[in-house]
Amino acid sequence: MILLLGGTSDGTDLAVQLEQAGFSVVVSVATDYGYRLTKEKVSHVIEGRMDEQAMCQYILANQVTLLIDGTHPFATIASKTAMAACQKAAIPYIRFERPSSTLDNTLPVDSIDEACQIAKKIPGTIYLTTGSKTLGEFASLLPMDRLVARVLPTISVITSVENLGFKAHQIQGMRGPFSKDLNKELIKKEQASVMITKESGPAGGLKEKIEACQELNIPCIVIKREKIEYPLIFQKTSDVVAYCGGL
């Protein structure tokens, strides 16, 4: 059996193709939201975060012969955990990751702290499209009254954002994908003077965010991915399916 760590549209699409190719696949997702979206397309889905020990136990108990890490490019803890579990369980690990986008016409940075240092110096509203998990860091490093965050419109996410101190008018609860024009309208609505986002790649709509900022003539600060040395990495679903067929 193949264990695929999912949570992204790319990972779900890969799971569908693997099932269609005749492989036995179970997709592991961290949240109820991810579970519901994945279950619409994939037969076998499990929910819940696993540490190294739990993941290793699951691999051994369910006779997993291959782990495919299809988590978000910024879910680095999950990737490192999976690599360690695979090494302990003595099974192959492969990374399936959406390709990076060009960062032309952006202000690329290596960390949230660096992004905040730049944004602080730009007067006006700071528009965050970085997801909800790291909003607490932004709230601690930037003036709260200058922030607007775009997040998934689920009860758990909205509640967590409100608990950080964000008011209703500072929260845009929406699910992508977002076109360039929609990005522009959302930015204009908030009269934002700078956007902070992540190097999420084409599937994460980075190109459309950058283009929207360009046309509105506002800076787009992009937090780059952490560089991790994966033992084996693929960026095309067809290559992963071919690799699985050769095992």
TrEMBL record:
PROSITE patterns: COBK_CBIJ
Gene Ontology molecular functions: precorrin-6A reductase activity
Keywords assigned: Cobalamin biosynthesis, Oxidoreductase
Biological-process GO terms, alphabetical: cobalamin biosynthetic process
Pfam families (alphabetical): CbiJ
The protein's annotated pathway: Cofactor biosynthesis; adenosylcobalamin biosynthesis
Database matches in InterPro entries: Precorrin-6x_reduct (IPR003723)
Protein name per UniProt: Precorrin-6A reductase
